[in-house]
Amino acid sequence: MTKRFYIVRRGHETGIFTTWDEYMKAVSCYSKPEFKSFASMKEAQIFLMKVMKKKKHNQNQLQKLKKKTQLLPT
Predict the structure, then answer these.
(1) N or C: which end of the chain has fewer CB within 10 A?
(2) How far apart are alpha carbons 21 and 10 in whole angstroms?
(3) Partner residues linked to 17 by β-bridges
């Protein structure tokens, strides 16, 4: 089975998840969750950074996300 990376933009918790269980906890029973899966961490990070820049999130939120995703393997 191929490893997948899951981005949750709206859910109980947001970010990039590396397991199905983490992903499901983040979106389960959440009203109108927003999520997407990717084949590589790099694709997921690029997509998430584009989305966040497009929505003009502040620099503090971007830094928190970068720190969180740096701990994950690429």
Answers:
(1) N
(2) 16
(3) 6
Q: How far is CA 51 from CA 20, 28, 30, 61, 68, in A?
A: 22, 22, 20, 12, 16
pLDDT of residue 25 exceeding 80: yes
Q: How far, in Å, CA of 28 to CA of 47, rounded?
A: 22
Distance CA 6, CA 22 (A): 9
What is the b/e burial string over 3-32, where b = at least 16 CB atoms within 10 angstroms of the residue's CB? eebbbbeebeebbbbeeeeebebbbeeeee
**29-62 pLDDT per residue, tens:** 999 998 999 999 889 888 877 777 766 655 666 6
Beta-sheet pairing, 5-10 with 34-38: antiparallel
